[in-house]
């Protein structure tokens, strides 16, 4: 009896190597870990293919001097239009760069909020203002912290899906008023850690009046160098975290009999040279505080004015000559000459000065309408993503300080905004500003190219390179894509004044808002854990007979 046996045939050719995509790796991982591919509803899904597109935090920053009162006005122009879709459950943490909700962070700074300065020194509570902010933003935003100093107020809200990434929220204030002991002027600050990034937001109100430029610079210097605030999970830090350079030099040479000479003082006795040297020193000290945080935003009523006559400024505004006025702007000049804010950045200004306007006490304004519309601005900005209606020059016979502000919804409804017509006749100025600073990243050190000790002469070099066996082969053109350089600096999506007809007469300032994109690639703080721990393989023990 014969038994048929199957002889194994030749083995088939191994399959060709196929590129392994991220989806195949994920499917294989889920199969091995025995976990079903069901997305959770607790946190929005983060798709890796979108990492290179939206790796930025969308931050809203607004500043407004409210003239010491809180009127029942519509907050939509200031805090931008909030659609009902913002309350829906999000499907992704990534947000676009358009003007509109939601924002990852909302930072709202006000000066002379709810009460005037003298009354706020004794009763600084801003409970009504905080309640109105929470009611307008709704349940989709969670308040992180508020900080108050007399009439100064700062509030930070976080988009609820991002709340789990925010930690270590701290607040502090510093006084720069009379003898640096009264809070009529100063700053309030809030720091937070999102992922591994440390962010600092400073809302300031600096010394007023046209001629007090040096006092304003001194206020900024004090804020940046003496503000004590927590940074992440570390202890309180000051603006000067380490000893000055001259102290380090003396410490290095303290055992030596001869000390290095001190740096010479400026030889010129001109005021300009001394002021430039002092400004450079101020900028050096300012950098020491900014080294403590990855991103610092400084905003508020800076009170920097335009050094020009009122008639000259109004004439330039009638001609829409913003560039000429910026040449006389004190803050722009100080930044160019190395002042304490020289290390900060600011988006180009395309809007009209936001100070000083007639209020409802001095001019009659029409009753605010209830129609909702996007916040209108002044001059069109190339960075702006919303349609704006710029103010128009006045008709013949109207004062040069008045401008016609068309309604964005009804072109037949025109209102007039008028710069200060009181006996003081203030010069229009850009007092309300938003600036930011990014801590420079440490550049990677490149390896030095080793050079030969002896260089052959031209004849020997020509003989060597002419030999065919040393000639380099021409490389074939490849179609591989080169990695693109990623700009990790903070981007400004929108920077404009909110000159809306619903805010006319509410204050002598108009609000200024900015929307920024801060680089962030830590959307998933920890890798997804497996549902079951891996099973260790145990081999059977040898059995003896």
Explain what the structure shows:
The chain has 545 residues and is of the alpha+beta class. Helices cover 19% and strands 20% of the residues. It has helices at residues 22-33, 76-79, 117-120, 127-137, 213-226, 245-252, 271-290, 310-318, 322-326, 330-336, 458-466, and strands spanning 56-69, 105-113, 141-149, 152-159, 166-175, 186-194, 197-205, 229-230, 236-237, 295-301, 402-406, 414-418, 432-438, 491-497, 512-519. The strands form four sheets. Strands 3-4-2-1-15-14 form a six-stranded mixed sheet, covered by helices on one side. The longest helix has 20 residues, at 271-290. The radius of gyration is 31 Å and the shape is globular. The chain starts with 21 loop residues before the first helix and ends in a 26-residue tail after the last strand. The relative contact order is 0.14. Residues 363-392 are annotated as: Disordered. GO terms for molecular function: phosphatidylinositol-4,5-bisphosphate 5-phosphatase activity. This is DNase I-like protein. Residues 55-524 form the Inositol polyphosphate-related phosphatase domain.
């Amino acid at each position: 009896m014969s038994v048929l046996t199957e002889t194994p045939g030749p083995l088939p050719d191994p399959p060709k190597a196929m590129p392994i995509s991220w989806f195949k790796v994920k499917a294989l991982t889920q199969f091995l870990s025995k976990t079903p591919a069901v997305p959770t509803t607790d946190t929005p899904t983060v798709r890796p293919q979108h990492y290179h597109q939206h790796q930025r935090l969308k931050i809203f920053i607004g500043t407004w001097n409210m003239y010491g009162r809180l009127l029942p006005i519509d907050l939509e122009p200031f805090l931008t239009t909030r659609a009902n879709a913002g309350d829906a459950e999000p499907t992704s943490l990534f947000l676009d760069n358009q003007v509109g909700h939601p924002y990852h962070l909302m930072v709202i700074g006000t000066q002379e909020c709810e009460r005037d300065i003298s009354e706020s020194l004794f009763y600084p509570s801003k409970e009504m203002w905080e309640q109105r902010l929470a009611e307008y933003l709704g349940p989709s935003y969670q308040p992180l912290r508020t900080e108050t100093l007399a009439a100064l107020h700062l509030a930070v809200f976080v988009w609820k899906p991002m709340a789990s990434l925010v930690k270590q929220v701290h607040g502090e204030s510093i006084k720069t008023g009379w003898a640096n002991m009264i809070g009529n002027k100063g700053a309030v600050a809030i720091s937070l850690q999102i992922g591994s990034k440390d962010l600092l937001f400073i809302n300031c109100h600096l010394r007023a009046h046209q001629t007090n430029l040096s006092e304003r610079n001194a206020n900024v210097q004090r804020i940046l160098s003496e503000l004590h605030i927590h940074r992440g999970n570390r202890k309180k830090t000051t603006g000067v975290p380490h000893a000055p350079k001259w102290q380090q030099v003396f410490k290095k040479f303290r055992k030596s009999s001869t000390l290095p000479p001190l740096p010479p003082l400026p030889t010129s006795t001109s005021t300009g040279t001394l002021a430039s040297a002092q400004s450079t020193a101020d900028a050096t000290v300012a950098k020491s505080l900014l080294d403590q945080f990855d991103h610092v935003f400084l905003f508020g009523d800076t009170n920097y004015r335009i050094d020009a006559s009122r008639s000259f400024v109004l004439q330039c505004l009638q001609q829409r000559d913003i560039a000429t006025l910026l040449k006389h702007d004190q803050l722009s000049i100080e930044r160019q000459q190395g002042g304490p804010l020289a290390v900060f950045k600011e988006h180009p200004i395309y809007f009209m000065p936001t100070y000083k306007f007639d209020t409802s006490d001095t001019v009659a304004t029409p009753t605010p309408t209830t129609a909702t519309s996007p916040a209108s601005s002044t001059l069109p900005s190339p960075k702006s993503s919303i349609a704006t209606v710029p103010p128009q020059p006045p008709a013949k016979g109207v004062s040069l300080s008045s401008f016609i502000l068309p309604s964005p919804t009804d072109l037949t409804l025109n209102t007039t905004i008028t710069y200060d017509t009181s006996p003081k006749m203030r010069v229009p100025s850009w007092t309300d500003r938003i600036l930011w600073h990014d801590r420079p990243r440490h550049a990677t050190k490149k390896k030095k190219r080793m050079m030969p000790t002896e260089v052959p002469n031209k004849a020997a070099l020509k003989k060597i390179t002419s030999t065919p066996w040393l000639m380099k082969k021409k490389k074939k053109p490849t179609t591989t894509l080169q990695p693109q350089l990623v700009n990790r600096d903070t981007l400004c999506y929108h920077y404009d004044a909110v000159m809306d007809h619903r805010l006319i007469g509410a204050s002598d300032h108009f609000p200024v808002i900015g929307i920024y994109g801060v680089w962030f690639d830590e959307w998933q703080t920890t890798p997804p854990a497996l549902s079951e721990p891996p099973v260790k393989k145990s081999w059977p023990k040898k059995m003896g007979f």
